[in-house]
Amino acid sequence: MSAIHIVIKTLYADEIPLSVLPLFTVKQLKDLVQEFTHVAAQDQRLVFMGQRLDNDHTTLRALNIMDGSTVYLAHLLQGCGMAKESKGTKRSTIHDVVAREYTIHLHKHVHGRSFKKRAPHAVKAIKAFAQKTMGTADVRLDPTLNKQIWSKGVKTVQHRIRVRLSRKRNDDEEAKEKLYTYVSYVPVTSFKGLETQVCDE
Description:
Belongs to the eukaryotic ribosomal protein eL31 family. The chain is of the alpha+beta class. It has helices spanning 26-37, 107-110, 118-134, 143-149, and strands spanning 4-9, 15-20, 44-48, 51-52, 70-75, 98-105, 139-141, 160-169, 179-185, 197-199.
C-alpha cells in the first residue's frame, strides 16, 4: 500500500510534512507526531475538517484523510480543557534545534521550466521547502548538495533528492535571525520506502 503525504499544522503555524499509510490509526499518527513535536500523544488534540480525532483506533482512511490533507494539532495544557497560549509566551519554532531527513520531489518543481532555468529553480525550490518546513527565513545549502543538483548540468535535474534539514541556533548574537536551517545532501541507493525521519545531531 502506498504512503500518503499529509501536513500537521500547529498552533504556531509550523507545518510538519509526514508520510503515513492510509491504514494508520489515530494513535499511530499521534505517536508519529510526538516524535516531531515532543507533545505527548495523550496531550494532543488533532482536528481534521472541523472534526476532533478522539477515537485512537479509527484509521486515517476511515476519516477520509488523503494525500495532501492538512491535520491541525493543538495540545492540552494542564488544568485547561482547551489548548491555548499562556500569557507572556512568545511564538516558538518547535523545540528550536532539530534535524530531519526528507525526500523532495524536484521534478514537479522544474517540470515545464525552460532548460536553462531548471537547476537554478531546483535550488530555489529546496530553499523554499526548508523555509516552510523548518520555519526559518535563513536557509543555507551545503556545497555538496549544490554540486549534486548541478551534477548533470543545468537541464537535467534528478526527479527526487534526499536531504537533511538541520535547524540550528545562529552564533552571531547580532544576527537578525536567531535560527537558521542548514540543508545537506543525503546519498541513497533507492527512494523506495523512505519516509520523513528525525535525526540525531
